[in-house]
Automatic annotation (TrEMBL):
Xref: NCBIfam families: TRAP_S1
Keyword Transport assigned: yes
InterPro entries given in the database record: DctP_fam, TRAP_DctP_sf
Name of this chain's protein: ABC transporter substrate-binding protein
Family statement drawn from the similarity comment of this UniProt entry: Belongs to the bacterial solute-binding protein 7 family.
Signal peptide: 1-21
Tagged with keyword Cell wall biogenesis/degradation: no
Highest taxon of the lineage: Bacteria
Keyword terms, alphabetized: Signal, Transport
Source organism phylogeny: Bacteria, Pseudomonadati, Pseudomonadota, Gammaproteobacteria, Alteromonadales
UniProt xrefs under Pfam families: DctP
Membrane-crossing residue ranges in chain numbering: none
Length: 341
């Protein structure tokens, strides 16, 4: 009888252990909006849909694109902190009003190239991650760019100075201040509303990445494109710390490795898309993966490049530092210390 009881106890323990091992961890994911294009469609969504299988982790992933949730992208950090979603593809400029520290990753003029953006991330990501963990119970799993954010107008322009007096769609306060500094009128409008706003003349110009604009049909309601990269369009993956802490150390390492690979893939794909979308938007070949349009490609002057480059210390940094230090007194000092290396 004693042996039977011991055997039963062992069997019960084994079943319980197996059941625990097989228990799936729910992962409610908010991705990028579908309207933003091929990064969301070809890399991000398939990654999450196959994550349980490719990682071997006990995950039950429920992925929803942001524009199918009814939730504004400006609310993403609050939503993540609340636990409504476990993991979100954060639109960093859009959530920066809740945490201005984030904007230090992509000040206007700071990241004119992909290489510059990668350097900024290597220096400053840890600072942003620490702040998000403290204030929003969120861990950063990785950062990536949509690509250079350029100017589209339905009004003839020949250089950056022609923006003076025009109404320009912006997506964060740093970009708004820059547009003001060159004489434009910044208008904050969500990405999904830009096409109609350009068509109706609510705005004259709008800024976004070249591939996102192509996918969203902006060239249908624009005439000119000025391909100067004001920002790099940084985005990131954030996971609720409660969800993260459900994982063992080994599981955390496995999940982080999966995101490291995804982010690496997106960086390469983003640069390829940028080059192709520059061609497609103005009717040049080859154009195999996007829609071909016939925008006027405005020549980039050295003076315009100089204006954007000089805006970092003249406009974007001081404007951001003042705002950020109000909510995070050590903000600008931490940015300066991180970026000096």
């Amino acid at each position: 009888m004693k042996k039977l009881l011991v055997s039963a106890a062992l069997a019960t323990g084994l079943v319980a252990t197996l059941a625990k091992a097989d228990d799936a961890i729910d992962l409610r994911v908010m991705g990028q909006p579908m309207a933003t294009g091929l990064i969301q469609k070809n890399l991000e969504q398939p990654f999450f849909e196959n994550l349980a299988e490719t990682s071997g982790l006990p995950l039950k992933v429920n992925y929803k694109a942001a524009d199918t949730t009814g939730i504004k992208d400006t609310e993403q950090l609050r939503v993540l902190k609340s636990g409504m979603f476990d993991l979100i593809s954060l639109r960093l400029s859009q959530v920066s009003r809740d945490e201005p520290t984030i904007l230090g990753l992509d000040l206007v003029g700071l990241n004119p190239t992909y290489a510059a953006g990668a350097h900024t991330i290597s220096q400053y990501q840890a600072v942003v991650d620490k702040r998000l963990q403290e204030r929003f119970n969120t861990k950063l799993l990785g950062l990536w760019p949509f690509g250079p954010q350029v100017l589209f107008c339905n009004h003839p322009i020949s250089n950056l100075e022609d923006v003076a007096g025009l109404k320009v769609r912006v997506y964060d306060q740093n970009l708004a201040k820059f547009v003001e500094s060159i004489g434009g009128v910044p208008i904050p409008i969500s990405f999904g509303d830009v096409h109609q706003s350009l068509a109706l003349g609510v705005i004259d110009c709008a800024i976004t990445g070249t591939s996102s604009a192509n996918t969203a049909g902006w060239p249908e309601v624009s005439t000119h494109m000025l391909p100067i990269g004001f920002q790099l369009g940084m985005n990131g993956y954030g996971i609720n710390l409660n969800t993260w802490n459900k994982l063992s150390d080994q599981q955390q390492a496995t999940l982080q490795a999966s995101f490291d690979q995804l982010v690496k893939d997106i960086w390469g794909y983003s640069e390829d898309l940028y080059k192709e979308s520059l061609r497609c938007n103005v009717g040049e070949k080859p154009c195999d993966n996007l829609t071909s349009y016939d925008l006027v490609k405005v020549p980039v002057r050295e003076q315009d490049l100089k204006t954007v480059s000089e805006t970092v210390m003249k406009v974007s940094y001081p404007t951001w530092a003042e705002i950020c230090d109000q909510s995070n007194p050590s903000c600008s000092a931490e940015w300066t210390a991180a970026m000096k290396d």
